[in-house]
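Input record, target 12 of the design panel.
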């Protein structure tokens, strides 16, 4: 990109388009890699042979590639003894999560240890991806496998540059999706996987997704080229590799099933003003199922939704709520239980992979979920977009600082360049 005669927007876009047509999806602009989503499987681009090729080669010597970025950060970490981070940014569907996985794959390749031990740290690091995706990814209008949470993976290395531990931190899981989905989108993959699991689905009295309110608000049940029954087995296998024991796996899916049953509980107005009762026999069945699966008392569960407790200095006042408030209570319970399950999964992944407290240095890879603008944007969306704007600002500052320093060392005379700055937007939200 820096070799272009005219470095302006049309020139940059034209260059990317020309290269894309030649199947060159990667382009450098200085130290930054631009990836254009190929929307096609390119296995030859990412196989063992390719990883071997990029290993230890001076940055810029070979064609632009995500492995070159990963290799450069690994080399810098080893030679400068200094932790590194890689920021993957772009709008929804641009290819961030796929890129992050490729970076992780390369780092486990150069920093891996003995092959053969199936529960090795690097295997666990890689298997944490399908597991987190089953519970944190969903189909959106833009992407069949859109991450609905942000992820920062720290891969820790020891003195000899070998992976010694890892930690996954997650941010801003989209809770609202558990109870509300728009047309042509889906809820989190794990719900459909469990419904398609056959024996396990029967055990939890589940059926086709169209029978559950949390799934049938949209008529999108299947994904092209994806078999949810097979995905269910993959998720279970990932749990094995990551070290989640059988009884914990059962507990996880019990909660997933309980949430689906919870969603089918409906309420009717009660005899008294502003009160609610459970609607009919079918709802009673789902209530009983939810209570059994969550191992709680069925009457307590019902009153949690139909009554509200108000704390006062004189003691607690218990007040009935109308049926629409009971639905809100039900949804809040479902969202909270799901969000806690997700956090529990992340904690367990971290515990089982293990952190190396004495690690010499680490490489962090940030995959935040992309900027999106819907017809109605919830508070959750605002937080996500705000995080993206902050990252963009960080990126701009970092890149311009790097450029400035390079000009200084090369003793090139230059004047400050003006660029589109999003600080105004950040100020609008951040400034008190
Ligand atoms: N390097 C790649 N090679 C092949 N397909 C890709 C690549 N990057 C992205 N894709 C395709 O695009 C889809 C969306 O990419 P994803 O990484 O999930 O987007 P984002 O995380 O930016 O929202 C993926 O499911 C995959 O089909
Ligand atoms: Mg993503």
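The sequence produced for target 12 reads:
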């Amino acid at each position: 990109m820096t070799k272009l005669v005219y470095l302006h927007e049309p020139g940059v876009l034209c260059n990317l388009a020309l290269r894309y047509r030649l199947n060159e999806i990667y382009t450098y602009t200085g130290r930054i890699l631009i990836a254009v989503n190929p929307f096609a499987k390119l296995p030859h681009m990412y196989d063992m042979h390719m990883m071997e090729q990029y290993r230890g080669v001076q940055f810029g010597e070979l064609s632009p590639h995500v492995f070159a970025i990963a290799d450069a950060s690994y080399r810098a970490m080893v030679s400068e003894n200094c932790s590194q981070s890689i920021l993957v940014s772009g709008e929804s569907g641009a290819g961030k999560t796929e890129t992050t996985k490729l970076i992780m794959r390369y780092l486990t390749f150069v920093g891996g240890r003995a092959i053969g031990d199936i529960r090795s740290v690097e295997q666990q690091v890689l298997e944490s991806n399908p597991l987190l995706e089953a519970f944190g990814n969903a189909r959106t209008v833009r992407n069949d496998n859109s991450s609905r949470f942000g992820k920062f993976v720290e891969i820790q290395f020891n003195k000899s540059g070998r992976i010694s531990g890892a930690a996954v931190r997650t941010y801003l899981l989209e809770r609202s999706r558990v109870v509300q989905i728009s047309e042509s989108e889906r809820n989190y993959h794990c719900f459909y996987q469990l419904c398609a699991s056959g024996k396990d689905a029967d055990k939890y009295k589940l059926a086709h997704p169209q029978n559950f309110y949390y799934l049938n608000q949209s008529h999108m049940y299947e994904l092209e080229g994806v078999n949810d029954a097979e995905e269910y087995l993959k998720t279970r296998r990932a749990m094995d590799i990551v070290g989640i024991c059988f009884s914990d796996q059962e507990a996880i899916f019990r909660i997933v099933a309980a949430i689906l049953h919870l969603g089918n509980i409906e309420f009717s107005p009660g005899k008294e003003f502003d009160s609610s009762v459970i609607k009919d026999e079918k709802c009673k069945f789902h209530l009983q199922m939810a209570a059994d699966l969550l191992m709680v008392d069925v009457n307590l569960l019902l009153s949690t939704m139909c009554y509200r407790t108000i704390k006062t200095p004189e003691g607690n006042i218990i007040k009935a709520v109308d049926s629409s408030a009971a639905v809100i209570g039900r949804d809040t319970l479902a969202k909270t239980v799901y969000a806690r399950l997700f956090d529990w999964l992340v904690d367990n992944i971290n515990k089982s992979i293990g952190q190396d407290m004495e690690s010499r240095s680490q490489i962090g890879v940030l995959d935040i979920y992309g900027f999106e603008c819907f017809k109605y944007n919830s508070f959750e969306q605002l937080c996500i977009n705000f995080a993206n704007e902050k990252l963009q600002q960080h990126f701009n500052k970092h890149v311009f600082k790097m450029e400035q320093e390079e000009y200084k060392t090369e003793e090139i005379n230059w004047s400050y360049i003006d660029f589109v700055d999003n600080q105004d937007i950040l100020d609008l939200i951040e400034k008190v």
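The mean pLDDT is 92.
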